[in-house]
Amino acid sequence: MVSTLPVSLEDIRAAARRIAGRVIGTPMVQSFSLGELAGVPVHLKLEHYQTTGSFKLRGATNAVLSLAPAERSRGVVAASTGNHGRALAYAAKAEGAVATICMSRLVPENKVSEIRRLGADVRIVGLSQDEAQQEVDRLVREEGLVMVPPFDHPDVVAGQGTLGLEIIDTLPEAATVLVPLSGGGLAAGVAAAVKGISPTTKVIGLTMEKGAAMKASLDAGRPVQVEEVSSLADSLGGGIGFDNRVTFAMCRDLLDEVILLTEAEIAAGIRHAYAAERQVVEGAGAVGIAALLAGKIWGDGPIVVILSGQNVDMEQHRRVINGKAALCGEERP
Question: Which UniProt keywords are listed (predicted)?
Answer without folding.
Answer: Lyase, Pyridoxal phosphate
